[in-house]
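Dear colleague,

Thank you for sharing your sequence with our group. We've completed the structure prediction you requested, and as agreed, I am returning the results in plain text so they can be pasted directly into your records. Please verify that the sequence below matches your submission; if there's any discrepancy, let me know and we will rerun it promptly.
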Amino acid sequence: MKISTLLNKDSVFCKTPCTSKKGILEKISHIAAKKLNLEAQDLFESLIAREKIGSTGVGSGIAIPHVKISSELPATAIFLQCECAIDYDAYDGNKVDILFAIFVPEDLCKEYLSALSEISQKLLDKQFLRQLRSAQTNDELFELLTI
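Please find the predicted structure tokens below.
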């Protein structure tokens, strides 16, 4: 599973107003709910439950919130570049300004791990991360993410 199979142009958001972890997870839930034809509240509760297990703030200003969804649904991702970094309880204590949320069908867990590996490798590249942070439009972000 490649990043390009998870994202499309209406899943990438530049300069997103962000004020809190709860608020951004609600925003992600609403976006994903429209794409997946699910209830936003259900997705939000799943994301919150996952965060209670351990923060998905992986460090360097990055969070990768992720939850399993029904096997009948397509794997989906939402990418947000925050206007301002937010407190996210990340492992390194840094605020988060890049979020890559993944909603993966229960029967695609192995494929999900390969996508997560690709995402993680890209996001750990400091030059790539600088490019993401300096992107000015949704299209520019989408192009960077799907190269």
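Summary note from our side: The CA atoms of residues 2 and 115 lie 5 Å apart.

Kind regards,
the structure core
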